[in-house]
Design brief:
- This protein has two domains: about 10-75, Winged helix-like DNA-binding domain superfamily/Winged helix DNA-binding domain (Arc Repressor Mutant, subunit A, Orthogonal Bundle); about 80-225, Up-down Bundle (Four Helix Bundle (Hemerythrin (Met), subunit A)).
- It has helices spanning about 10-25, 35-45, 50-60, 80-105, 105-125, 130-145, 150-160, 165-170, 175-190, 195-225; strands at about 65, 70-75.
- It is built from ten helices and two strands; from the N terminus they run αααββααααααα.
């Protein structure tokens, strides 16, 4: 992607932020890697100013760590951190789903159905990048439908830590298919205004992702130890 900088362009700064965020989420900037301002500015054909601002925003979102004498490093969570974070998100999403089933408007439900249709089309094409973007919009819309600003803020803050891992959880074909089925179950529960069912589905959905990621990370550790 080539971006041409325009002076005082708020849109440019937002575009650079979203581009770097996507690179982190999709693992194109690997966990533990340094974000080199000069190299990023050259690759995106912009000055270092929007890069620097984007990195600050990413650090505030928990996707990047600012470390003295090292600079900006893509966050790398320990296995224990991953488990704890997914457990918190499971409860937050369960509560969010419960409230959404009680409070969601007909307009928001229609929007969710449209997003679900688009997401299924991305799944049929095996377009993981597009699928994940739509998936994230669906989860945020459910969170908004809960109509609890404090919950929405907590969800955004905590979820940012594991976005890249949630993306990776769908790289297994069988697990991806299961996640798609769970999203249809969410929509059915919302249509039925069944808050208890919605809570169960949301919690199980996140727990399944947690289990996939834990298996994946453990396998990676074992591979490294084998190579040694």
């Amino acid at each position: 992607m080539t971006v041409i900088e325009q002076p005082n362009s708020q849109n440019l700064h937002e575009a650079i932020f979203q581009k770097l965020r996507l690179l982190l989420v999709e693992g194109k900037i690997a966990p533990g890697s340094k974000l080199n301002e000069r190299e990023l500015a050259e690759s995106l054909n912009v000055s270092r100013t929007p890069i620097r601002e984007a990195i600050r925003r990413l650090a505030a979102d928990g996707l990047v760590e600012l470390i003295a004498n090292r600079g900006a490093i893509a966050v790398q969570l320990s296995l224990e951190d991953v488990i704890h974070t997914f457990n918190v998100i499971a409860d937050l999403e369960g509560f969010s789903g419960e409230l959404a089933a009680n409070n969601i408007s007909d307009a928001a439900l229609s929007e969710l159905e449209a997003l679900q249709y688009e997401m299924m089309a991305s799944y049929a094409r095996r377009d993981l990048s597009s699928y994940y973007k739509l998936n994230l919009r669906i989860h945020h819309l459910i969170n908004q439908a809960a109509n609890n600003p404090v919950l929405a803020q907590l969800f955004s803050q905590v979820n940012a830590r594991i976005e890249a891992l949630r993306f990776r959880s769908n790289q297994d074909g069988v697990k991806w298919e299961k996640a798609v089925e769970e999203h249809q179950e969410m929509l059915d529960a919302l249509k039925a205004r069944d808050s208890a069912r919605m809570r169960r589905i949301m919690i199980k959905h996140v727990q399944n992702k947690r289990d996939v990621i834990v298996q994946l990370l453990k396998a990676e550790v074992q591979l490294v130890e084998t190579v040694k």
